[in-house]
Structure formats: structure tokens, C-alpha cells
Write a structure and sequence with these properties.
The structure holds 2 protein chains of 2 kinds.
Chain A lengths: L4 E6 L3 E2 L4 E9 L3 E11 L10 E4 L6 E4 L10 E4 L12 E9 L8 E8 L4 E7 L5 E7 L3 E5 L10 E8 L4 E8 L18 E6 L13 E2 L2 E4 L5 E4 L4 E9 L5 H8 L9 E5 L13 E2 L9 E4 L3 E4 L20 E4 L13 E4 L7 E9 L6 E9 L8 E5 L1 H6 L5 H4 L3 H5 L4 E2 L1 H8 L19 E3 L12 E2 L4 E2 L2 H14 L3 E5 H7 L9 E3 L6 E2 L1 H12 L3 E4 L7 E2 L1 E3 L2 E6 L36 H5 L1 E6 L7 E3 L19 E2 L13 E5 L10 E6 L7 E2 L22 E7 L3 E5 L17 H14 L18
Helix pairs in contact in A: 7-8
Chain B lengths: L12 H17 L4 H9 L7 H11 L7 E7 L3 E6 L9 E2 L8 H18 L1
Antiparallel strand pairs in B: 1-2, 2-3
Classes of the chains: A mainly beta, B alpha+beta.
Chain lengths: ~775, ~120
């Protein structure tokens, strides 16, 4: 019997009360599920805290839902819009493409371009066989005729490839010529490798042409076990300019194309100029046919565009500067940006719904452990009313969505200093290939994943989830500790998401006197960063309730907020690195990597920025001399003793996981006060790579003073202010002792002051050394 | 980066790495004593002596398919030690039937396995 499994996602993650939200659910082993709307209050199961808390909420959609298994098309490819079947060649033809395979010897067949139906054995294609050799094939339904190159394709090298078929003579040719230069591939001129192959054969028949077969780049038509049309024989690698002729070109004509020119011949049926249509602010998913038939191709699962092309000379490092050298489109057979499941249910949310984090809880099955799924979304207010907003860092959730670092990344355990603790859902996710990867993972061809999406089940954006490499509640499950704290404190608040901040800019924040961040608000688009800076500079009061914030660039395309882009540069922490020339986001043209390198260190925005990170034992904060200064002594009012945060759900301390510190050299505002500071971190904590010029022995907790967290405060223009907690683990210290602890007291003092209508406490005092309490 | 499952039969670097690994293991075996094992038992995730840290750094750097992990059967209650496959799509396999009642106990069980592998091979 198939075990019962339920998985789901929503069309949007930020909605208002009364709006309709669509749920997409896939079920295995059952055709019904019990649905119950719940508000998520606390997400960390650690018995040292209140545990998992959800509240059931009345909703017309509660009850039994019919569910079914849904098909997921994994892999990125381009499908050509060819309604008149111009690419259904009945007679002679030529195919050509510039290609850069990233996994030629994958053991699986790959189609580069073609109009091929593998199940029906009809059509034609040019691709790569199981052993990594270029191949041209045709079929009429019974047998497949193949012509295979006599030297294998080299990984990460550019080639010009072409196939011709003369219908009269039935002569087929296959051409493979290396077009590597000093910059564009893995190997240099000195490598003694044979890149060239030219073969020909006489085929017995002509290709068949089914009307239903699409012309596809990086894959070909197939059917799944239920006979549903899908795309398989997916290609790993880059394709640059490619096209077709309805005649068999001669070698000299192919040489002309290889030189970068495309003959203006009547027989040219399609020429996809992969570098056409670029703008400084991004590249879309449509690949343009600049030939006369306009047979444009549309990307599925977002092929990666703006990549270095076959003719890249290495002088420019960005597609904006020389688009014609950046025609590479990269494909991966394990890419996924949208499950494209049918909507299971459209739910009209209750009008009076309190702003917060919600989930549709789905349950099915019997026995001790029925299958349960929480499909999470966020409800922002219909009209802002509260003085406090909590901003869920959903972009960071997306960056980490379904990460599998503990299974695949050889350096992860060395980085965290501890063995992974895997849950059953982690293991299940590792075994499945249909829920996609995170921007922390690598595709199976070794290249980094630069797109992540919430149009798929995101199993680590769930309550109770623990990140295996750290063995702590992480992301949403950790941020709910702040929600539970707000609930028990009695503060009236509303919630927003990064999606709202990106879309609405500072207007998303301006209705609120006080905005509280999540525990790791790491990924920020330029618009989000600008909005936060403008909010604070305009008199907003901001609580940076975490660490490692505002650190990494990210891109979101307007109108498609479910997909985020992340490129990684050679400066800063990174699970992988973009190849040179591929650091710029196709989404919006921004340079990827840390914001610090772009002149926007976190310290400039909120006073502190990433000093170090690690795992294992967390540490408490100690009050620093500034905490006794009259301008800020109100922050620690009611706290007993010098120690703050000596317990927590994340490794027993408020300072842990990622630590931020005050650094004037990186832009900490001049009058910032250090209220408390942590110390005594173990050698599992290592200084942030961005802060050092060399690697050397001793950049660890017990050796380097920079390994610590600072809790800071500064006032900003127009009555604004920023309080920064300094550590990712801080939020998880709040629930200790039923929320009665020093960290909780400090945060309450600040929230109360920030949300208040009047001037901030301490305003009457000046920043002079003698103003001690 | 090369494909995650790229055939490395032509990669001569493996010989150099194995040679280094052999020397390293020979030295690391001299570091194993009852005190270092007790230190780990008492503090699997704390600040460690150089002797223990050297052993742990080695274990964390093993090829993925030779590494262990902890499986939480029931978080905060029941744990087991598993061995990673190093191959995407292939689940970790259970190494024995031992059940641990805390993650730290399981980490120590995992550590003892690593020590045994070091001493026996």
C-alpha cells in the first residue's frame, strides 16, 4: 500500500483577509484530506520552550478536500511556438547550435535541439548519448537511425555542432568543432584534447513528423507512467545561438556559421539569437527567433540567461556591457521553479482574520503517524492599524527552500562543526527529485542553483522544522518565537513579508511606528534595502531582531514574486560560486554577492553586521558600559545582573549561529551605543571571510575578538531609531522560562518605547561621557 | 565545479589525497585515548582540546559517502546513527540498532564509530 503523503503550496504567500488564495495539493495513498485553517503561534518543538502552538480558525474551507497525485515537470528547457509546423521538416534540413555541455557523460540521453518524440520514435534531434558523444538521430516510428561523433564531448567546453540531412540522397552528416578560447571554458589551449569530429552516413528513411511534437531546446517530448505528455532527455549545459535551415548546408556554409555569421539564405527557417532582447534591468524567459517566421521559444523552469557565450572574450564581466558575448542559456535537468499543479481549492479567507502567519493544515491517513502538511501563508492587514509590524523574511526562506546541504555539500559539516541531525522529511526530500533545490544547493552537474520558488512545497518553511546541519529550529520555525513573544506580551501587531516590502517599498513600512525583523533577514533586493533605509531615515523605528541580515543580494522579477534569483560571488560566505562573467542577475541586472562589496555594509543600515558564524554552544550577552549611559539605560531597565540571554532554544544562549558586530570602519553610525556584547564563543565560530584579507590559523572564537555579537542602539533622523539584537539565536532565547527572562525584558522595553507615540526615552540626555545613570 | 557524480577515474589527485590521508590517519591514531573519548562524551559541541579537535576536523572532512549523521526518529526523544550515501536520491543507511535518547548521546555514538573506523582501517 502506498504510504499516505500530502504536500502543498499556495499561489501567493501574502494575502489580505477576505481575499482568495489557491491551494495546490498533491496526495499519495489517499484521495481525501481533512483541511483546517490554523494560525501559527510558535514553531519550535524544543521542550525548553512552549513547544509547537497552533490555533484552529473557523473557515468555510475547513473540512474534507478531494486530493489527487499531481505531475511535476522537472528540468529547464525551451519550447518553440510553431503552430504552422514549419519545423516539421519533410525533406532536407540542417540543425546547428553552439553548446557548452556541463555533464555530457551523465549516463542518460540528452536532447540539445530537435523536434523529437522519444516514445513514438518520431522526428529528429541532435543531442548527447549515454556515454557523452554527440549524436544526430531521426525516426519514423519503428527504428531510430543514429549518427554518433567519434570523440566524446569535453565537459565545460564550447563547441559548434551541426547536423544535416539531404532527403534526396538520405545522406546525414554530423559536425562537432571546438570553439574554446582563452576564457570561455574549463581547459586551455595547452590541453591535448581532440575536440573535432565530422561524420556522415546514409540513412534509410526520412524523419516522421507528428503534429503534436513540439520543437524543444534542452529536452524532447515524452510521456510519464500515466501517459501524460512531458519533457525528458533533458540537457545539462549551455546553449548559445542556434537555428535550422530547410536544406542540407555544405561544410563551407557551416564554417561561416561557426565564425559567428548566419548566412541570409532563404532556407533559414529559424535563428534563435539567444542574446537578443536583453535590457540593463533584466532578461525575460522568451528567446527570440530573429528569422522571418518569429518562432520564439519560451523557457520552462526558468533557464538561466545572461550566461557567458561561445564568443565571450573575458574582457567584460557582465551581460549588460556586451550582450552579444553573453548569449549562453544554461539548462539543468533538475531545475524547478514551478510545480504547475492544478489548483485543489480556492479558499476565500474570512474577512475578520487577524494579521499573522497561517497554514492550511492537511491531514490524512490512520495510525500513529498520519500524514500531516502545513501549507503556510501570511495574512497582512486589510488596512494597517497597529503601530507594530513584524516582517517575515520570506526571501531568505526562499533562498534556503528545500536545502539539502547536509547530504550533498562536502564542506557543510566542517563549517558548522557538528554532524547533521536528519529528520524523516529531510531524508524523504533527499530521495525525491520533484520538489527542487535551494539556492544553497548545486545542480547535479555541479553548478549552483540560482533560482528558488515557492510554487512548490517548501518543506523547511513549516512549523517545527529543524535545520539538520545546525539542529535548531530555523527560518519560519525560529521566527515564530518572536510571534509567540508578541502574542504573550500583549502588543498589538500586524505582519508583512519581504514580498510586500519589495512590491510596495517604504510605503509597506511607513504606516508603522515600529518594524521588527526576523531572526535571519539575510537576502535583500535593492528595493527592499532602499525602503528600509528610507523608513529609518524618515523617522521609523526599526528592531533588527536577528543576525546575518541585509547581507546578500537577491532579485525578484515584477509580477513573479514566487521566484527569487541569487548569484554568488567570490567574496563572502557561499555554498558555491558563480562563474566569472555570470555574477549579474538576469532578473534585474544587479550584481550578485554580498551587499557589503557594493558599498552597503549592514552596519550602515542598522549599526551592526556579520562578524562570524558557527554552531554548537551559544553564549550569553554581558552588559557593556554604554548600557549605563542615560541615553540608553532604559533599554536594560528591569534586567537583573550583568548577564542577558544565558539560555535559549538555539543551543542555550542568545548569542549564537550568526553574530553581528559594531564596526565604524564599515559604517556604523557615529553615536551608536553598544548595550551588551557576547563573548567566549567556541572555535566552531569563525570570523566572517569578508572581514579578512587572508586565511590564517586563529580566526576562531577563542582567538579572535571579532567573534562576538553586539547589541546596539542609535537614534536616527526625524525621531527614528534602530535597536539591533546582534544574533540569529536571540529570537529563540525569548521563550525561555515562559518568556520571563532578560532578553525578553530588553526587547519589551524597546518595543514599548518604539511603539509609543512620544519621543524616545533618553532623548533629554546628550551623548557625552559624563551622562551615566 | 564538476558534476556531483563525475567519474574521477582519470583524476590523479586522488592518489595524492589518499597518500596524505594515510599519513594523517597514522598520526591521528596516536591521539586516541580514553581521555579524549571522555572529553567528547561530556561535551560533544563545546570548546575542545587540540587532540580532540584534530580528530573531529578529520571526521568532518571525510568524503560524504564515508560520513555519518544522526537521524531524529522523534526529536528530543529518540535518535539513531546513519551513514550518508553521498549519492543524491539515495537515503542514508542505518548502521546499527542503537537508539539514543538525546542528540548529544547520538553524536557521541557517531564519534565512537568514527574512532572505530580510524583504528580498524
Amino acid at each position: 500500500m502506498t504510504p499516505v503523503r500530502l504536500f502543498g503550496y499556495t499561489d501567493r504567500i501574502s494575502v489580505k483577509p477576505g481575499e482568495t488564495i489557491q491551494f495546490h495539493v498533491s496526495a499519495e495513498g489517499t484521495d481525501t484530506a481533512e483541511a483546517q485553517l490554523v494560525r501559527l503561534v510558535h514553531g519550535d518543538q524544543n521542550p525548553a520552550g512552549p513547544g509547537f502552538i497552533e490555533e484552529e480558525v473557523a473557515c468555510t474551507a475547513n473540512g474534507r478536500w478531494r486530493v489527487e497525485p499531481q505531475f511535476t515537470q522537472v528540468g529547464s528547457f525551451l519550447e518553440v511556438d510553431d503552430p504552422e509546423g514549419r519545423l516539421a521538416f519533410a525533406n532536407s534540413f540542417t540543425l546547428f547550435a553552439f553548446i557548452h555541455p556541463t555533464w555530457p557523460a551523465s549516463g542518460e540521453r540528452q536532447t540539445i535541439i530537435g523536434r523529437w518524440d522519444g516514445d513514438r520514435k518520431q522526428g529528429y534531434g541532435i543531442g548527447i548519448d549515454e556515454k557523452g558523444h554527440l549524436q544526430f538521430w531521426i525516426g519514423r516510428g519503428e527504428e531510430i537511425e543514429r549518427l554518433t561523433a567519434n570523440v566524446p564531448l569535453q565537459v565545460q567546453m564550447w563547441y559548434f555542432v551541426a547536423a544535416t540531412f539531404d532527403a534526396e540522397t538520405r545522406r546525414a552528416t554530423l559536425h562537432q568543432v571546438g570553439v574554446g578560447n582563452r576564457y570561455n571554458g574549463l581547459l586551455g589551449k595547452v590541453a591535448l584534447v581532440d575536440y573535432e569530429s565530422r561524420k556522415s552516413a546514409i540513412f534509410r528513411s526520412k524523419p516522421g513528423n507528428l503534429a503534436s511534437t513540439p520543437f524543444i531546446m534542452a529536452g524532447s517530448r515524452s510521456r510519464d507512467a500515466q501517459q501524460r505528455a512531458c519533457v525528458s532527455e533533458l540537457y545539462w549545459g549551455k546553449i548559445d545561438r542556434c537555428g535550422t535551415f530547410d536544406q542540407a548546408l555544405q561544410p563551407a556554409e557551416l564554417d561561416t556559421i561557426r565564425s559567428g555569421l548566419v548566412p541570409a539564405m532563404d532556407s533559414l527557417v529559424a535563428y534563435w539569437d539567444t542574446s537578443a532582447g536583453y535590457t540593463d534591468r533584466g532578461i525575460g524567459d522568451l528567446v527570440v527567433d530573429v528569422g522571418r517566421h518569429k518562432l520564439n521559444a519560451r523557457g520552462y523552469n526558468r533557464p538561466v540567461r545572461g550566461q557567458t557565450g561561445w564568443n565571450w572574450e573575458g574582457f567584460t564581466d557582465c551581460f549588460r556591457l556586451a550582450p552579444q558575448e553573453f548569449g549562453g542559456i544554461e539548462f539543468h535537468a533538475d531545475a524547478l521553479t514551478d510545480c504547475n499543479w492544478k489548483a485543489t481549492k480556492a479558499v476565500a479567507l474570512p474577512h475578520g482574520l487577524k494579521s499573522g502567519c497561517y497554514a492550511m493544515r492537511l491531514r490524512s491517513g490512520r495510525g500513529k503517524s498520519p500524514s500531516e502538511e502545513h501549507v503556510v501563508f501570511f495574512v497582512r492587514p486589510g488596512r494597517p492599524r497597529a503601530r507594530i509590524a513584524f516582517l517575515f523574511p520570506t526571501l531568505t526562506y526562499l533562498a534556503f527552500a528545500n536545502e539539502r546541504l547536509s547530504f550533498d555539500h562536502p564542506e557543510r559539516e566542517a563549517l558548522t562543526g557538528q554532524s547533521a541531525v536528519l529528520s524523516d522529511i529531510d531524508i524523504e526530500m533527499y530521495m525525491r527529485d520533484d520538489f527542487g533545490l535551494s539556492t544553497y544547493d548545486m545542480h547535479a552537474d555541479g553548478n549552483g542553483v540560482c533560482y528558488s520558488s515557492y510554487h512548490r512545497p517548501v518543506m523547511n518553511m513549516r512549523p517545527r522544522y529543524r535545520m539538520p546541519s545546525l539542529d535548531v529550529a530555523s527560518g519560519l520555525a525560529a521566527d515564530l518565537s518572536i510571534i509567540a513573544w508578541l502574542d504573550q506580551s500583549g502588543f498589538e501587531y500586524e505582519v508583512l513579508t519581504d514580498e510586500d516590502l519589495h512590491r510596495d517599498g517604504s510605503e509597506a513600512l511607513s504606516p508603522y511606528a515600529c518594524v521588527i525583523s526576523g531572526s535571519r533577514p539575510e537576502y535583500y533586493t535593492e528595493r527592499m534595502l532602499d525602503a528600509t533605509e528610507d523608513y529609518i531615515a524618515g523617522g521609523g523605528r526599526y528592531i533588527y531582531a536577528g543576525g546575518n541580515g541585509f547581507n546578500a543580494t537577491a532579485g525578484i522579477r515584477d509580477g513573479e514574486p514566487w521566484i527569487m534569483e541569487c548569484r554568488r560571488r567570490d567574496d563572502g560566505y557561499k555554498p558555491w560560486v558563480s562563474r566569472y562573467g555570470e555574477h549579474y542577475m538576469a532578473t534585474d541586472g544587479m550584481r550578485g554577492g554580498p551587499w557589503k562589496v557594493l558599498g552597503r555594509a549592514t552596519q550602515k543600515l542598522v549599526g551592526i553586521g556579520l562578524s562570524s558564524s558557527g554552531a554548537g554552544r551559544s553564549e550569553p550577552y554581558r552588559r557593556m558600559p554604554d548600557s549605563y549611559h542615560r541615553t540608553v539605560s532604559w533599554i536594560t531597565k528591569g534586567v537583573d545582573g550583568e548577564i542577558i540571554g544565558d539560555a535559549g532554544l538555539a543551543n542555550d544562549g542568545a548569542a549564537g549561529l550568526a553574530l553581528d558586530y559594531y564596526d565604524r570602519a564599515l559604517g556604523t553610525p557615529p553615536h551608536t551605543k553598544i548595550v551588551t556584547s557576547s563573548g567566549g564563543h567556541t572555535d566552531s565560530y569563525v570570523v566572517n571571510q569578508q572581514l579578512v584579507l587572508y586565511s590564517y590559523l586563529g580566526l576562531y572564537g577563542s582567538y579572535d575578538w571579532r567573534v562576538h555579537a553586539d547589541m546596539t542602539y542609535f537614534t536616527a533622523p526625524h525621531g527614528g531609531a534602530v535597536f539591533a539584537c546582534g544574533s540569529v539565536a536571540f529570537a529563540q532565547s525569548l521563550p525561555i522560562n515562559n518568556f520571563r527572562n532578560g532578553a525578553s525584558r530588553v526587547l519589551a522595553n524597546v518595543v514599548e518605547a518604539f511603539a509609543g507615540a512620544g519621543r524616545l526615552p533618553g532623548f533629554a540626555w546628550v551623548n557625552e561621557e559624563k551622562q551615566w545613570a | 565545479m564538476l558534476p556531483l557524480e563525475y567519474g574521477r577515474s582519470e583524476d590523479r589527485d586522488i592518489i595524492v589525497r589518499d597518500r596524505f590521508d594515510g599519513f594523517r590517519r597514522e598520526f591521528l591514531r596516536t591521539l586516541v585515548n580514553p581521555e579524549v573519548i571522555e572529553e567528547h562524551r561530556q561535551s560533544a559541541l563545546g570548546q575542545h582540546s587540540e587532540r580532540l579537535e584534530r580528530l573531529l576536523i578529520y571526521f568532518r572532512q571525510r568524503p560524504l559517502e564515508q560520513r555519518y549523521a544522526v537521524r531524529a526518529i522523534e526529536p528530543f526523544r529518540r535518535y539513531q546513527v546513519v551513514r550518508l550515501s553521498g549519492r543524491r536520491g539515495v537515503p542514508p543507511r542505518l548502521v546499527d540498532d542503537a537508539i539514543y535518547t538525546s542528540a548529544n548521546d547520538a553524536r557521541h555514538g557517531l564519534f565512537l564509530r568514527c574512532i572505530r573506523d580510524l583504528l580498524e582501517t
